[in-house]
Automatic annotation (TrEMBL):
Topology relative to the membrane: Multi-pass membrane protein
The keyword Nucleotide-binding belongs to this UniProt entry's keyword annotation: no
Domain called PTS EIIA type-1: residue spans: 487-591
Keyword Iron-sulfur among record annotations: no
Active-site annotation: C26
Origin organism lineage: Bacteria, Bacillati, Bacillota, Clostridia, Lachnospirales
Superkingdom as given in the UniProt entry: Bacteria
Main localization of the protein described in the UniProt heading: membrane
Name of the protein: PTS transporter subunit EIIC
Domain PTS EIIB type-1 stretches: 4-86
Keywords on record: Cell membrane, Kinase, Membrane, Phosphotransferase system, Sugar transport, Transferase, Transmembrane, Transmembrane helix, Transport
Gene3D superfamilies, A to Z: Glucose Permease (Domain IIA), Glucose permease domain IIB
Length: 616
């Protein structure tokens, strides 16, 4: 299927171009906000040939395409007019909304930053091969690359305006004001500057990140105010004039210096970590990157990355760890492909392993590692070990890009050993992950010598040895299939198989005899382990983590031994629903990969203590 056909099918299933409020793409995914979310058919989108997966994360619909995503995005734009300035978007949680803002602001400028960084890498290689730094060719290519970083405030102004909902060209003008030669000359001179008696702090805003975002945020409200007070006959010139006359002085006097100070703090903290505990952040990123990507939390680091690029010309926060993590995903997928006897799964895992080594981890993550808890743990341990080495050796990423074997040039810089240490860290992560997955992480279901009966005849197929373990409902209510839960992590069985209950009250009881493994700090999740070894997660509500424990009362603690029917947790169902949250209770077997199957019961009414599903 070519780019046009793929774009056309996607556009139909999202409700047409008129239903798209915002559209952009990152290295592998289409990212869109929709005006009417009831029009999208996510399940059919997942079935389109050429689509690797689809989900709603961080307030956005994300359709995983792969490295051809930019071509598909361009085709969608050609097929209809998409207005992206101030279209209404359905309300999401505060954390999701914040990450959605970060993603929408920074994602569009990543190609420019990547191009600038790659040109810098090419220049380093050219110098190693004898190019004279004083030559005109070097000088021209150098300022071409510098432009991508120096004019970052202008690019961020445009993307911020499109996301936050103000005139993008007035925002670009504000970016130009911060970089104007007249102002930079004042900064260079260093003499005190005042505006109407108020001091203007002399800050170099070239390559800055936070000041322009604060400026555009203010502009959103000022522009609305100017629109409201401007008479219609003169609105076309009075509104923009008022907007700039109000915003520019406030930014130069207050918001700009404030944003610069925040950026300086971020840079100082980053520098401190790199100087004193250089191994810590890459190790944590290498270990937890799969979970960050799964939840969309990796977008929250974008302001830190951009600040680091603009301040130092490199970053060591996410790049080294994510490179190792991606390689570890590939190692796990390859190991599973070698061990499994399922031909179809072997082919799927092999393909996913190749794409993961190239930096595209979604097929490996969703198709292999997340399905098996121990395999995912192997990836995290390998990623942590490789990340530790990368941090210890001071590995940095010189520009943005999806880390993988094909994108290793983003680790080429003035230190020629940087890319060598990056490769060594990858080898460490690959070997550890492969070994752990082989000896610990992946085990296919045991089989005995029995044969499957088919209407009284033997088919000759081996059947897995099984033991039935009954899981009882922890709450009164109505049991429903996981596929009907609004959260994709549960509906797609990413966290494991099981069933959900729409509660009739707020009492959670033990679904079997066993141990309380963990009660989350926010009390919305309880982890249990049965006496037979079944690891169960009871998740109370959707996005209720945002309540930070409000309306929940725990009656157990980590390590407690419980019997079937013991009271574990109470929650105020009415108060949680009044706060805008769903109270459905997914009951998930998190070590699903250790068992043959999860046999769910029929949907319908259920009481606490009645059978919910069977683990084989």
């Amino acid at each position: 299927m070519n780019h046009y056909e793929l774009a056309k099918e996607i556009l139909v299933l999202v409700g047409g171009s008129e239903n798209i409020a915002q559209l952009n793409n990152c290295a592998t995914r289409l990212r869109m906000n929709l005006k009417d979310e009831s029009k999208i058919d996510l399940n059919k989108i997942k079935e389109i040939q050429g689509v690797l997966g689809a989900a709603k994360k961080s307030g956005q619909y994300q359709i995983i395409i792969g490295t051809d995503v930019s071509n598909v995005c361009d085709e969608i734009r050609k097929m209809g007019q998409i207005t992206e300035s101030s279209a209404p978007i359905q309300k999401t949680g505060k954390l999701d909304a914040l990450m959605d803002i970060f993603a929408s602001i920074f994602t569009p400028v990543i190609p420019a930053i990547t191009a600038a960084g790659m040109i810098k890498a090419i220049l380093v290689i050219c110098v190693l091969f004898g190019m004279n730094k004083e030559s005109q060719v070097y000088s021209i290519l150098n300022f071409i690359a510098d432009a991508g970083f120096y004019f970052l405030p202008v690019m961020l102004a445009f993307s911020s305006a499109r996301k936050l909902g103000c005139n993008p060209y007035l925002a670009v003008m504000m970016g130009g004001i911060l970089l104007h030669p007249g102002f930079t000359k004042m900064v260079s001179a260093g003499d005190p500057v005042f505006f109407l008696g108020l001091p203007v702090k002399l800050v170099n805003y070239g390559s800055s990140v936070i000041p322009i975002i604060l400026a555009v945020w203010l502009m959103v409200y000022v522009e609305r105010f100017a629109d409201k007070i401007s008479p219609k006959p003169v609105k076309f010139f009075m509104k923009p004039t008022l907007t700039i006359l109000i915003v520019a002085p406030i930014v130069l006097i207050v918001l700009g210096p404030m944003g610069s100070y925040v950026g300086t703090v971020i840079a100082t903290v980053t520098d401190f970590l790199n100087s004193h505990v250089s191994w810590l952040v890459p190790m944590l990123m290498g270990a937890f990157m799969p979970l960050l990507v799964l939840t969309g939390m990796h977008w929250s680091f974008l302001p830190i990355l951009m600040t680091s690029y603009s301040t130092y010309g490199y970053e060591a926060v996410m790049g080294p760890g994510s490179l190792v993590s991606n390689i570890c995903q590939g190692a796990a997928a390859f190991c599973v492909a070698l061990k499994t006897k399922d031909r179809q799964f072997k082919q799927q895992a092999s393909s996913a392993g190749i794409t993961a080594l190239m930096g595209i981890t979604e097929p490996a993550m969703y198709g292999v590692t997340i399905k098996y808890r121990k395999v995912l743990l192997s990836v995290m341990l390998g990623g942590g070990a490789g990340g530790f080495y990368a941090g210890l050796m001071g590995v940095v990423r010189y520009t943005s890009g999806t880390p993988g074997l094909l994108s290793l040039p983003i680790f080429i810089g003035e230190n020629p050993m940087n890319v060598i240490h990056a490769l060594i860290s990858c080898m460490i992560g690959f070997c550890i992950t492969f070994a752990l997955t082989w000896f610990y992480g992946f085990k296919e279901p045991e089989i005995d010598g029995a044969v499957e009966a088919d209407n009284g005849r033997e088919t000759g197929k081996p059947v897995p040895k099984s033991k039935k373990i009954m899981i009882y409902s922890p709450v009164n209510g109505r049991k429903v299939k996981l596929s009907k839960v609004s959260d994709e992590t549960f509906a797609k069985e990413i966290a494991g198989k099981g069933m959900a209950v729409e509660p009739a009250d707020g009492r959670i009881t033990a679904p079997f005899d066993g141990e309380v493994v963990t009660v989350f700090r926010t009390k919305h999740v309880i982890g249990l382990r049965s006496s037979e070894g079944v690891e169960l997660m009871i998740h109370i509500g959707i996005d209720t983590v945002e309540l930070d424990g409000k309306y929940f009362t725990s009656h157990v603690a980590d390590g407690d031994i419980v019997k079937t029917g013991d009271l574990l947790m109470e929650f105020d169902k009415q108060a949680i629903e009044a706060a805008g949250y769903e109270t459905v209770v997914p009951v998930i077997v998190t070590n699903t990969g250790n068992y043959l199957d999860i046999i769910t019961s029929e949907e319908g009414a259920v009481e606490s203590g009645q059978p919910l599903f069977t683990v084989l």
